[in-house]
Structures are given as C-alpha cells and as structure tokens.
Amino acid sequence: MFQPLLLSFLLTAGTPDTAVVPMPEIVVSGSRVRESLMRTPAAVSVVNRSQFANGRAIGLDDVLSGIPGVLVQSRGGAQDVRITIRGYGARGNGERSNAGSMRGIRILSEGIPLSEPDGRTSLDLADVGAADVVEISRSNVSAIYGNASGGVVNLRTDFGFEKSYLRLDESGGSFGLRRDQFTYGFTAGRGRGVLSGSNTQYEGWRAHSGSNSAQLHARFAAPLGEGGNDRLLFIADYANNLIRFPGALTQAEFDADPEQAAPRFVARDERRFNRQGRIAATLEHGFSANQSLSVSLFAEPKALQRSERNRYRDFTRLHVGGQAAWSFDARSGEALVGRTSAGVDEAIQDGSILFWNLDPDGSRSTTIFANKREAANSAGGFVQQSLTWNNRWSVQGALRYDNLWYISDDFLDPTLDAQKRFTRLTPKVTVSWLGGARTVFAGIGGGVEAPAFNEIDPPPPFDATTSFNPFLEAMRSTTYELGARGAITNSLGSWRYDTGVYWIDTKNDIVPFAGGAYFFTAGESRRRGIEAGLDWIPSSRLSLRASGTFSNNEYVDYANDLGDFSGKDMPGLPALTWTASTRVKVTRGLAVTLAVEGLGKYFADDANTVEAASFTLVNASVDYAVKTPHLGLRAFVSGRNLFDQKYVGSVFINPIRDTPASPLRYLEAGLPQQFVAGVSLTR
After folding, report:
1. Which letter does DSSP use for residue 662 in this model?
2. CB count, 10 Å around CB of 611?
3. N or C: which terminus of the chain carries fewer CB neighbours within 10 A?
4. Lowest mean pLDDT among 309-318, 507-516, 551-560
5. Can you give the pLDDT at residue 96?
6. Is the peptide bond before 16 cis (omega within 30 degrees of 0)?
7. Could you give the CA distance from residue 471 to residue 458 in angstroms, rounded to a whole number?
8. 120 - beta bridge partners?
9. What mean pLDDT value characterizes the chain?
10. What is the predicted pLDDT for the residue at 169?
C-alpha cells in the first residue's frame, strides 16, 4: 500500500490560496545532528504512524512502501524484508536463513543503532506497531554514520502528548494473522513514558513460513532542570521471535504451486529462534541556546539459534556501545550563521558460536561441528561544518574516519584463527539553496561498506588455512546527488514534492555467489537513478499521491572465474518501481483509499540469465475514526493484491542448484490476495 511522504503536507490542506505554503517545522535526526527537515541537504522522508495504520504492522514493508528510491521486498510474508535504498542492500537475500538480516542500510531506534558493528541488522527489535514516526534518509550518510550507511531508517516514539492514554490494537486477517498490542502513555511530572507490548502470530501462506513474535518496549523521557535544554531518555526492549523459512523455488515449482516450500528447507526445518534484549540511555545537554551535547550508551544481549545449511547454529552475543555528538552554532553579523558538529562512536559485538550437525528430522544432533569466538569492533569519529548566509544559501562539509576490526578464534582448530581490519576516511560536501518552503541541494560524498562478518567466510581451498576470505576488501563508493523538496498552494490545491537524481560509482562491490555461501569483490559498478514523490490535495476531501524511481544499475568492470560480467545489469535491482494512490473522505470519519503499485523486471544473477517478471498490484482500504471526550475508536479493513496476481516477491541472488543437473532455485513467491481488519481503542 502506498504510504504518503510526509504528514506535514496533510496539515496544509486548509491553508489559504497563496503562492507558498508555510510549513510546520519537522525536526529530523537522520544526520545525527537535529535539524529542520526542510533545511536538511539530503534526501529524507518522514512517515507518521497514521500513514501506515491500515496495514499488518508486521514488517518495515508496511512503512516504507512508496518512498522514492526505496525498494522493500518481503521474503515470506513475515517480518524479514529486504530493504534496498538506491541499490545499497541488494545482496541481502540468499541461501542463508539469516539473509533476512539487512546489509548496507543502517537501522536505528530512537537514534541508537540496531545495526551491528559489521553492518548487519537483525530486525527482531524493529517493532513497526510501536513506532510513531519513521525517518528515512535516502542519501548515503557514511560521512556521518560510517560503515554500511547507504541509507538510514530511524524508528521514533512520540513524547509530545499532554495526558496519559491507553490504546488497544487488535487486528487479524488472511493466512492466520493475528496481532494483539497495547500501548500505555503516562505522565510523571514533566516526564513522559510509553510502554508497549505486542504478540503476533502468522501461519504464513506458503508451507513452512509461519512465525510468532512477542515484543516489549519501554521508553521514558524526562527533562532535567528548568531551562528545557536537557533531557534524559531511558530505553528497554525485549523480543522473542520464531520464524520458519520456505526457501526459494525453481521456475517450474513456482509455475505449478507457489505455495509450496523448497523440499530441503522443510526437511531441515530451516528456522530462526532469536531472543534479544536492549537497555539504553541518552542524555541531551544544552550548554547554552547555541551549544548542545548528546551522549548515548546501550547494551544488547542476544541468544540466537537457527537451522541453516545442514547445521544447527547457536550464537551467544553481547552488543555494547556508545556515541556522542556535539553541536555549536555561531553567528557573524546578521547574514552569516555557522554550525560546527562533531561526534564519536564505538561498538563491539562479541560472543561464542557453536555449530552442530542436524539429525534427519532437523533437530540438533550431539555431534559438534564448530566452536568459535567471533567479535567485531567498530570505532569512528566525524566532524561537520555548515555555513548559511542570508538565510538563502548553505554549504556543508563532513569528514569521518572509520576503523573496523574483526576477530575469529577457532577453539577446535587454532590454526584457523584470524583477524582483519578495515579503515577508511570518508568525505562529503553539499550546497543548498533555501527558498522558504522549498529547498534545492547538490552534493558529492563518499561511502564505505565492509563485508559483514558472515560474508567473509573463505571458499575452498582457503577454508583449510584461515577463517577469513583473504581477497575481500571494503566497498568504496562516490555519490553525486541533486535533489529538491517543497510545498506550494495555487488554484489547483496544495502540492508537496520530493525529487532527486543520483549517480553512484562503486569499487569493490560485494557480490554473493554459491547461493550466498561465499562472496566476491567486484571491480567497478555504477548506479544511476531518478526518483520523485508527489502529494496533491485538490480539496479537503480528496488527496492523490504518487512516487516512482527509474534507475540503471550495471557492472562497469567485473570478471571472476565464472565469467566476465562487465556491462551486465546488477542482480536484484529493477529499473522501475512506482506507486499511485487516491484517498477520498466519504463522510466525517470515513475514508476510502485505492492504490496501485508496480515493479519492473530484474535479474537474479550476474550473468543475467534468470529474471523475475514485472508486476502490478491493486490495493484498497476503508477506515473509520471517531473521537469522543472519553474514547477514540478507529477501525479499518484493507486488501492487498485484490486481483490475486501471481508474482515474484523476492529472489535469491546468484542462486545454486540442488544438484548439478537440477534447475536453479531462486524464486520467492509474493503474497497472494489478502485481507486485514483491525480496531483500535484509545482512552
């Protein structure tokens, strides 16, 4: 279902007919330094809770669909999704069951990373139903965040309520979906807290694709002192998630019965059972009206088990870290304003890994296969300087240094012990024209992405001498970007636009082969694209929205032992994605939304021999909301893929065969016709 770009645009529907719409200020933190959305010199979108309330609230696909430049694909209909932003993150699908983990895209919650030091992100703690606002940075922000920051998704809680409230959400739908959630917002003096808990059960539409997820989240934000410049935020999270994987199908299996699962995934009971917690705190201190400091600390204990590739894998990990960002504003006369920002961050994840062979029924055997320690440490710092003059022009420059260190100790065979380090200096420069309710910006910046820890396994024969692939290096990229955003009102109504053009040159692109068991480093690749989003409100009862991305993604210079792929399209990246929707307010409180989404064809392998066909889906929803002095009621019914089109939801990149003579297994079938209904009560 298409999601609108910004709630702020909806607030302009009743403004007078003037040339420029005065926009409510929305402050974002996607650049680690809080600043106005309109003045941010990067491609940024903001999605409010009301804009994804008519969905299943299982995964981030319910939130991010329809954002320009962003491709979100569900693996099996549950919470595991593949998120690609301007081509970053495309390799995050393959034979590994943990391929549902993100690569290349950084996920935050309240500004604190859920992403691990090596750039992977497990989505276990990313609870869509508990989020009030989601910020999406579509520009590469490696110059601020460092490794694996081709885009940033930040889930935030709203603490702006005046009085306590209790909200109960119940929803259910096709394929055994049921979701129960409570949210309690409370006041304690000037402090605000939010407690939320959810339980989601989903049988799945394909065989062997069910999941169960239970989550608890607690937030408490309290101002310190009387000045209003200081705040302390406490965070506590817990997730208990079990998900089974149906695997990929061959073309013949997909044509005959897309509901079936890959036989070996069923035989091995391929699954993931994760229990994960997090405690964190952020202190924001204002030294003065123009100088501030933010310091965060976090700890995440994890117990992760999964059945994958004929092994039962048991991980015990502790992810701890901290970050600090300082900002100082200075004014020289009336025309020139400068802002200096600097920050440091440190994170380490360490723990043991035990691998056992699988018994025939998919359970853990008593035969241990591996006993190792794996640790990843990332450290870095950045400095950023911006200058704005006459409140019309702005220049911003940033520079960051990263030091990423991997350690592997093999307790069964110490000769395999290995260490690997990646370091990189990453710059970025942008220029902006600030025109009140419109902004135009241009930028050039670097990007860095090291292979994730489970991507540096060495292929034979090197696996007999070391734990790390000796040939992999960090991916380096340069992004050229031009963008514009703004809002206007004229005789035809209110308009909100968000456009961008990008050109990304990449060296040492990280490419999976053998179904994701090992990875190559490509020579050079290039990604170019045009993205646009438009909201139009011609009247108070009608709104229309559309977004689209056209891109060209190709290997410029890439050859390995399997062939020369120079000039081939990069797999997993369609040339065209688009969405369009219209929303009509029928009567007071009752609204109907009709939406269409489309995806162009794309290849699944480097040689461009197998592909996923294009498709177009039609979706719709009806929602009703009423509020009394004592109770708020909201109900909805939504349907997706109303014409029950059979389509490919995602693919395994560079797939493998079950046997040398069997066909390639690479297609993950997309969700068929489905319906969800829900009701929300707020007191």
Report:
1. S
2. 17
3. C
4. 507-516
5. 58
6. no
7. 9
8. none
9. 89
10. 95
Q: Are 89 and 83 in contact (CB under 8 A)?
A: yes
What whole-number distance in Å separates Cα of residue 311 and Cα of residue 267?
12
The β-bridge partners of 581 are 545, 595
pLDDT at 383: 97
Mean pLDDT of 170-191: 95
Q: What backbone phi and psi angles, to 5 degrees, belong to 176?
A: 70, 25
Spatial separation of the C-alpha atoms in residues 244 and 303, rounded to whole Å: 17
d(CA 208, CA 414): 38
* E strands in 227-363: 230-244, 271-288, 291-308, 311-332, 336-358
Token readout for 260 is 């079936």
H, E, C per residue of 526-548: EEEEEEEEEEEEEECCEEEEEEE
Share of the chain above pLDDT 70, in %: 93
Q: Which two tokens stand for residue 554?
A: 């190709």
Tokens, residue 18: 């003037």
pLDDT in tens, 115-138: 999 988 888 898 888 899 999 999
3-state secondary structure of 266: helix
CA of 500: how far to CAs of 326, 445, 458, 531, in Å?
A: 30, 15, 39, 5
HEC-encoded secondary structure of 430-450? EEEEECCCEEEEEEEEEEEEC
Write the CA distances from 304 to 225, 262, 273, 314, 590, integer angstroms: 42, 23, 6, 6, 44
Dihedrals phi, psi of 42, to nearest 5 degrees:
-160, 165
Average pLDDT over residues 582-597: 95
User: CA 316: distance to chain centroid?
Assistant: 24
Alpha-helical (H) ranges within 238-309 are 251-256, 263-267
Q: Which two tokens stand for residue 419?
A: 């260490």
Which amino acid belongs to residue 473? Answer: E
Confidence of residue 456 (pLDDT cuts 50, 70, 90): confident
The yes-or-no verdict on residue 17 having pLDDT over 60 is no
Which of 484, 486, 478, 482 minimizes the C-alpha distance to 499? 484
Q: What is the pLDDT of residues 297-317, one digit of tens each?
A: 999 999 999 888 788 999 999
Q: How many CA atoms lie within 13 A of 136 on its CB side?
A: 26
What length is written for the chain? 683
C-alpha atoms less than 13 angstroms from C-alpha of 320 in its C-beta half-sphere? 5
Residue 340's DSSP bridge partners are 328, 385
Taking a C-beta distance cutoff of 8 angstroms, is the pair 353, 371 a contact?
yes
CA distances from 128 to 31, 58, 125, 155, 310 (A): 22, 7, 9, 8, 32
Q: Is the distance from CB of 83 to CB of 99 less than 8 angstroms?
A: no
pLDDT digit string, tens, across residues 384-418? 999 999 999 999 999 999 999 999 999 999 999 99
Distance CA 485, CA 42 (A): 10
Among residues 656, 592, 665, which one has the least CA distance to residue 624? 592
In order, the DSSP letters of 646-659 are --EEEEEEEEEESS
d(CA 445, CA 399): 9
d(CA 100, CA 211): 14
Look at the alpha carbons of 253, 256, 261, 263 in this order and tell me if their dihedral is positive or negative: negative
Looking from the CA of 47 toward its CB, the CA atoms found within 13 Å total: 24
Cα 611 from chain centre:
24
Mean pLDDT, range 628-632, rounded to an integer? 90
Written as six digits, the tokens of 188 are: 């304690």
Whether 247 and 293 have beta carbons less than 8 Å apart is answered as no
CA distance 445 to 145: 13
CB 131 within 8 A of CB 49: yes
Cα 553 to Cα 640: distance, rounded to the nearest angstrom: 29
Rounded CA-CA distance 153/126 in Å is 10
Query: Which of 26-30, 388-392, 538-542 bottoms out in mean pLDDT, i.e. has the lowest?
Result: 26-30
Average pLDDT of 540-552? 96
